[in-house]
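FAQ: What does the model actually see?

It sees only this:
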Amino acid sequence: MSRVWRVVWSVGLASWMGFSAAANESERKPGSRQSSERVQFKQRMLDSLEISERQQEQVEQLQQSFSTEMSELMQASAKGRKELDQLLEKQAANEELEKTITELTQLKAKQLRLIIRNRKQMERILGKAKADEFMQIARKKFEEKRGRVRVGTRPEKPGEGVGE
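And it is asked to produce this:
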């Protein structure tokens, strides 16, 4: 998986790990089990990285601002896709379609820039090794939560392998 796609994949991790935008926080009840589990996981993860309290605060602040900005961009993208669908349904002129497509493309570019900026800032705060470890832990937990198993190699094809 390319580095850019790993970074893109991490978009959902920030909010899933509890570094969510204020809008998502209001949906979650403060005393709820889900909220406390996320806070506990986030704290255990940051503690396992053996980083200073200042770095922890910087990471939390960075992830919260990232989540807020990304949420706004994703909402704008969803609105744009809905608008594009409506234009397609009413068989709009190509100029209208192109305008909406251009807007969506610009939003996607902003998302990618935000992801890359966030990744670079994370590396600046934690250093490359700790930032990579942070993402590895987050990915593992995310995949466990979703019931996915990461397999390093593919099984052998029938007729290949041992004894041939």
